[in-house]
Amino acid sequence: EVRRPLTLRGSGQSVLDGSSTGTVLTIDADRVTIDNLIVRDSGRRHTTEDAGIKATGKGIVLQNLRTEDTLFGIELAICHGCRVEGVHVAGTAGDELRGDAIKVWYSHRVQITGNDVEGARDLLIWYSDNVLVSGNTVRDSRYGFHFMNSNDGVVERNRLENNSVAI
C-alpha cells in the first residue's frame, strides 16, 4: 500500500504479483506516479472489487502499465485530477463475472488516454465530471464505455471493436 507521494518506475518487465489475494496495489495518497510495470494476479472477490490497482487521492498518474489476470484492472475512487495513460488491461474474456477494465467513480477532471482494453466488462465512468476519454481502444468487452451521472466529459478519437454495447 502506498500512503505518501512517490514515484515507482519499473523497467517494463518489473512485476507486481498479487498471488491471487486481494488488490495488488492500493494507493491512498496524493501525487503518486506508477510507471512502466506489469501488475498481475489479483484476488477474485466481487464484494471487495479485487483489482490490479485501486487509487484514491489527487494528481495520481498511472502510465505505461499492463494489468494481467486481475478481476478489476484499475479503479479510481475519489481520485481528482488523476491520469491513466498508455495502460493495457487484459480482462478475463468469456468469464461472466469479469470486472471493469478501468473504473472511475466520484473522480473529477480525470484523463483516460491512449489505453488498450480487451476482454473486460466495461470502461466505467460514474458520478465523475469533466473526464477526458481519448485515443483508447476497447475490444471484446461488454460495454466499450459506460457513463452514468457524469457531466461535461469529452469522448474523442476512440476505437470500439466487437463489444456487446459501444457507449
Helix and strand arrangement:
Layout: E1 6-9, E2 15-17, E3 25-28, E4 32-35, E5 38-40, E6 51-56, E7 61-63, E8 66-68, E9 72-77, E10 83-85, E11 88-90, E12 102-105, E13 111-113, E14 116-118, E15 123-126, E16 132-134, E17 137-139, E18 145-148, E19 154-156, E20 159-161
Parallel strand pairs: 1-4, 2-5, 3-6, 4-7, 5-8, 6-9, 7-10, 8-11, 9-12, 10-13, 11-14, 12-15, 13-16, 14-17, 15-18, 16-19, 17-20
Characterise the protein shown here.
The protein has 167 residues and is mainly beta. Helices cover 0% and strands 43% of the residues. The chain has strands spanning 6-9, 15-17, 25-28, 32-35, 38-40, 51-56, 61-63, 66-68, 72-77, 83-85, 88-90, 102-105, 111-113, 116-118, 123-126, 132-134, 137-139, 145-148, 154-156, 159-161. The strands form three sheets. It has a seven-stranded parallel β-sheet with strand order 1-4-7-10-13-16-19, with no helix packed on it. A seven-stranded parallel β-sheet has the order 2-5-8-11-14-17-20, with no helix packed on it.
Radius of gyration: 14 Å
Form type: globular
Unreliable residue stretches: none
Report, as a whole number of angstroms, the end-to-end distance: 33 Å
Number of helices: 0
Please describe the biggest sheet, giving its number of strands, its sense, and whether it closes into a barrel. Answer: 7 strands, parallel
Amount of helix: under 10%
Task: Give the SSE string.
Answer: EEEEEEEEEEEEEEEEEEEE
Main sheet: which strands, in order across? 1-4-7-10-13-16-19
Strand content: 35-45%
Number of E-type strands:
20
